[in-house]
């Protein structure tokens, strides 16, 4: 999976490892990633690491080959790495636009492309994109992020159609606001306003997203493809 060292990513790595999967993720800062790996190891959880910036197709391909070298073929891919560069569109620079599109959306092409042929040959695969509630409903100050996240679902439903006959399901999880660094970095007064809009009256937990991801993996979920699973405390109930 990508972005495994982050708030949601760590929960996904933990849950998948605890349910018997061999898990790998990428890193950009080796020292930080090794410290993270040791922390999980202390809890009895093993996650393999491979260097790679997912916004680069060459890096992504090398990362996938390294994971295959360490663990064997990739049967499950979770495209989770993501960033925000928030500002209203009339102030947005092309760099803020590009960084968000390449990290959140181009990364789906970059990482999925080197794994898809193997999945098709083996006639089994699971590809899960972590999008966002804000790709479903839009968000003030996030034209770049909302475009990237909505694009991830467009990617999901096309890939789902192309690969259904090969035993590969492709789905999206669209989280609402989860209490990770990304959201805790938002000023407290803004966060309080966000929580007030969530029917459950609280932020989500990273493991609640990990649970949604794990739902798509078993053979029993083989009929579910091209779906978008909203996990947002009831904040948005559209597609
Ligand atoms: P974090 O910021 O905690 O983690 C992001 C992860 O992505 C980190 O591991 C980071 O690695 C990695 N990453 C970022 N850019 C790159 C890159 N170019 N190449 C490789 N890895 C990269 O975010 P969250 O855990 O909160 O979010 C995970 C996903 O969930 C994101 O896609 C986010 O958009 C989405 N999401 C989050 C929500 C929330 O409320 N938190 C709500 C809805 C969606 P590094 O340590 O190297 O930076």
UniProtKB/TrEMBL annotation:
UniProt keyword annotation of Oxidoreductase present: yes
Which positions fall inside the Ketoreductase domain?
Answer: 2-176
Q: Which GO terms describe its biological process?
A: monocarboxylic acid metabolic process; poly-hydroxybutyrate biosynthetic process
As for family, the record states:
Belongs to the short-chain dehydrogenases/reductases (SDR) family.
Q: Does the keyword Thylakoid apply?
A: no
**What is this protein's name?**
Acetoacetyl-CoA reductase
List keywords of the entry alphabetically: Oxidoreductase
Tell me which PANTHER family the record gives.
3-OXOACYL-(ACYL-CARRIER-PROTEIN) REDUCTASE (PTHR42879), 3-OXOACYL-[ACYL-CARRIER-PROTEIN] REDUCTASE FABG (PTHR42879:SF2)
Q: Name one GO molecular function term.
A: acetoacetyl-CoA reductase activity
List the GO cellular component terms.
Answer: cytoplasm
């Amino acid at each position: 999976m990508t972005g495994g060292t982050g708030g949601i990513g760590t929960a996904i790595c933990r849950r998948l490892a605890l349910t018997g999967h061999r898990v790998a993720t990428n890193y950009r800062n080796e020292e930080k990633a090794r410290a993270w790996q040791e922390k999980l190891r202390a809890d009895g959880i093993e996650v393999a690491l491979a260097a790679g910036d997912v916004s680069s197709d060459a890096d992504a391909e090398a990362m996938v080959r390294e994971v295959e070298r360490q663990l064997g073929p990739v049967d499950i891919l979770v495209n989770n790495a993501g960033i925000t560069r928030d500002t209203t569109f009339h102030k947005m620079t092309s760099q803020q636009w590009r960084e968000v599109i390449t990290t959140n959306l181009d990364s789906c092409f970059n990482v999925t492309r080197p794994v898809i042929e193997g999945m098709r040959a083996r006639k089994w695969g699971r590809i899960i994109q972590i999008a966002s509630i804000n790709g479903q409903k839009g968000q003030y100050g996030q034209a770049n992020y909302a475009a990237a996240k909505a694009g991830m679902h467009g990617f999901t439903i096309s890939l789902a159609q192309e690969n259904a006959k090969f035993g590969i399901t492709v789905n999206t999880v669209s989280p609402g606001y989860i209490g990770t660094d990304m959201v805790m970095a938002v000023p407290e007064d803004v966060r309080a306003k966000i929580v007030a809009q969530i029917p459950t009256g609280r932020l989500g937990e990273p493991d609640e997203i990990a649970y949604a991801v794990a739902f798509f993996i078993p053979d029993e979920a083989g009929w579910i493809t091209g779906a978008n699973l909203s996990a947002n405390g009831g904040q948005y109930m559209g597609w």
